[in-house]
Amino acid sequence: MDVNVIWSYDGGMTAGAPITGGLDFDPIDAARAQWVERDWGAAADGMAAITSLMRAHQIALARVESALRPLGVTFARYEVLMLLWFSKRGSLPMKVIGSRLQVHPTSVTNAVDRLEDAALVTRSTHPGDRRAILVTLTPAGQELAERATKTLNAEVFERPGLEARDVHALLEILTRLRRAAGDF
What is the pTM of this model? Predict the structure, then answer.
């Protein structure tokens, strides 16, 4: 099987992800059985849950990146564009971007560098604090954010691969997990 193919939300094949698929067994369930067999049963369900969560992350990210690829933007850069678009003035200090996206300053710098190179944002000294760098969305950046959002809504967010009740249950569970970890 082509390693650049994944199963999509409707059971079809989707190209563009370095993910294999189509196994005739669930490898995570098989790993869980191995945990139990080796007397690690107390950890077996947790291992299966965390491994499944990480695998689901890979699948979801591959779908998002595949939808954004034709627009020339990654999900990380899309998040910066959207954060700026949602801000009252269309601009935010880089430190605030990092804090709200919960990423390292180096990641913010990298994303902003790429967005600036593509003329989607500009960078300037903050007028109220000369030590801070202000990132501002350009009209081209706003237009791309709008197009990317329409694409993601149609191709991913409106059809996440789960029934609506499962989406709500998953969101509730993940929110509890994030809260318990101190994410917010």
Answer: 0.82
